[in-house]
Each structure stands twice: as C-alpha cells, then as structure tokens.
Amino acid sequence: MHTILVIVAPIFALILVGYLCRKTGKLGEQAAAEINRMVVWLCLPALLFKVTATATWSEIWHPGFIVAFGAGALAMFFITLAWRLFSGHSLVASSIDGLSAGYANTGYIGIPLCLLLFGQPGLQPALISSLIVVCLVFAISLTLIEIGLQEERQIGRAVLLVAKALAKNPLVISPLAGAAWAMSGLGLAEPVMHFLDMLALATTPCALVSLGAFLAQKRSGAQASPWPLVGLKLIGQPALTWVLAFKVFSLPTMWATSAVLLAALPTGTGPFMLAEYYNREAGLISRTILLSTMASLLTLTGLMYLLGVAG
C-alpha cells in the first residue's frame, strides 16, 4: 500500500487545499468554475496537443493492449450510459456518468505507477492508455453530450449543429491538431515545447484544486450514491480487462499486467471538468472521483499482490 499511497497522497493534498481555500474564503464562489474553465480552454488542450503531436506510431501501435484496455473502458462507459438512460436520466448526464465509470486516472497515477513497477518500458502502456482515455472515451462522451444538448428535430440540421459545436470545442480540436502536426513530421520547437509543458503540467493540480473548491460548496437535496460508479470503475473494468489481456490475447506479462492495473485506476478529473463546463450537477461526479481514489488504495494494492508485482 505504501507504493500507492506515495502516488495518490498529493491528489488528496491538492483536493484538500482547494476545499480549505474555498471554506476559508480565500477562493470565491465562482472559483471552482473559473479554475475549471482555465483547465478546459488552456491546460488540457495543451496536454492533448503535446501528447498527440509527439507520439510515434511505433510507441502506440500495440493492438492487443489497445483492444484489451480500450474495450474495458468502453464497456464500462456504455453499460453506465445504458443504465442511466434506462433510469430516466438525460443523454448529457448519462454520458458524463458513463465517463466516470470508464475514465481512468492514467496520467497522474498510471504513469508514475508503471514507472515504479516496470521501469522505463512501463511508459509505453501508460502512454497508450492515456491516449485511449482522452482521445477515444473522452471524445465519444463529448460527442454524445453535444448531441444531447441539441433540440433540433430535423436530423440533418441537428447533425450540422453537433458538428459545429464539436469543431469549436478545444478538447476536440487540440488532439486532432496534434495528430495532424505529428503526421507532418515538422516536430516542435523547444520554446513551443516549454510553453506546452508549462500549461500541461498545470492541468491536474488546477483540476484537483477546482474539485476541492466544488466539494466545499453547500448542496441541498438528496444525492445519488456514487458507489455503483465506483464499483464499475474499480472492479468491473479491471476484471474485464484481465480476461481480455491474459485469456483472450495472452499479452506478454508486462503488457497484460499494466493493462489490468491501468484499468483498475480510480476515476480521473475529466468527467468533473465536463460536468462543470456544461453546467451540470457535478456532485455525483466529484464524490465518485474522491471515493474511487480513496478505495483504490485497497483495491490497487490487493491487485498488485494478486498479479505478483507488489514487491
């Protein structure tokens, strides 16, 4: 547990800082929304552009791992989406909830964890999983949210409005622009890399401080339980990924083990960013992130022992 605690302790610290600053009035009533807006429009787009612009084909083309990890994330997303829609929730809310069940914290927890357990080779599966989470699962959720926001009855007109909304969204444009830049073969100048790094490194701290500030706000009314989403994220996703990685594709040990551990990571801040950005009820999402992170101290540690990498 010490290994996991060392990695996740700063997450709790940043959430606590945001919480205390809001409670003591050091951050104003709109702090959570405004900090989150900076993340959505500046920090996260810089991170997405940098990751896609600097990735090479040889680094990311591992089809067995891609399917094993990606199928687990997408399965949790669509299972949750169908469940929430069937329960009477809107497509927008259901998409954000689905993202909470399939959006692993591969960046802040996954990369250092893989480095600690597997050394430099562990960066490859961590990078691929991050690309799947932010460029596939996140993109599908964004698309469904934009569809849910449209009230047009004419299909052609609705499709056009969704396309326009996505084309204006920085979280859609930035990875596509990064991929186009990578294909150009031009590379990134050193000052540009420093600029992107400075913004990208602020993504997680700002998102977590925003989350803490949001948790400090008073909310009235009954709150839905986050535990079903936490269970899907911490148990359902790694269980399905284990079957695919070890039984279906028989991946090499390092790739199979990392796929399962990355799938077992707690929910990242992406769903909360979307809930705040689209002015949706973020209470369920914030509690899912917090509780899944806390519970992962036990689940990840147990999983590491089962997979034989706890030492």
Q: How would you explain this protein's 3D organization?
A:
This protein has 15 helices and no strands. The longest helix is centred in the middle third of the chain and has 27 residues, at 123-149. Helix content is 79%, strand content 0%. The relative contact order is 0.19. The mean pLDDT is 88. The radius of gyration is 19 Å and the shape is globular. By secondary structure, it is an all-alpha fold. It has helices at 2-23, 31-54, 57-60, 63-86, 91-102, 106-118, 123-149, 155-167, 170-184, 190-201, 203-215, 227-248, 253-263, 270-277, 283-307. The protein has a single domain, classed as Na+/H+ antiporter like fold (Up-down Bundle), CATH 1.20.1530. Helix 5 (91-102) crosses helix 12 (227-248).
Q: How is the topology of this model organized?
A:
Blueprint: H1 2-23, H2 31-54, H3 57-60, H4 63-86, H5 91-102, H6 106-118, H7 123-149, H8 155-167, H9 170-184, H10 190-201, H11 203-215, H12 227-248, H13 253-263, H14 270-277, H15 283-307
Helix pairs in contact: 1-6, 1-11, 1-15, 2-9, 2-10, 2-11, 2-14, 4-5, 4-7, 4-12, 4-13, 5-7, 5-12, 5-14, 6-7, 6-13, 7-8, 12-13, 12-15
